[in-house]
Design a protein that fits this description.
By secondary structure, this protein is of the alpha+beta class. It contains 3 helices and 9 strands, in the order H-E-H-E-E-E-E-H-E-E-E-E.
């Protein structure tokens, strides 16, 4: 992979998301990270899946920030390159949101997208 490819494969985690991940993981004995994955399905073709996990896989890319760890597998990273993972707390509720520049369409729920 050249320097350009690595830059486009990068995923950022905001301070708000890192703080929320650290808080959630601290309250779950044995869990070490939040895994974000892309799966087929959802109302727009692909959907994001969030899981607390107790181990790291060989193909995981680990994003570490402010004491929090987010894991993304190689295949999901292909769809998420250049994305920003954020945590939003507003009148509509609390949720992790992914701003994905690769998505050409998304749905109202914010967890489904198409490329």
């Amino acid at each position: 992979m050249g320097a350009d490819a690595k830059t486009t494969m990068k995923v950022d985690v905001t301070d708000a998301a890192a703080a929320r991940v650290a808080k959630i993981v601290a309250g779950e004995p044995g869990k070490i990270a939040l895994r974000v994955a892309v799966e087929g399905g959802g109302c727009s073709g692909f959907s994001y899946k969030f899981d607390l996990v107790d181990s790291r896989n060989d193909d995981d890319v680990a994003i570490e920030k402010n004491g929090a760890t987010v894991l993304i597998d190689d295949l999901s990273l292909v769809y998420m390159g250049g994305s920003v993972i954020d945590f939003v707390d507003d009148l509509m509720g609390q949720s992790f949101q992914i701003r994905n520049p690769n998505a050409v369409a998304s749905c109202g729920c914010g967890t489904s997208f198409s490329i």
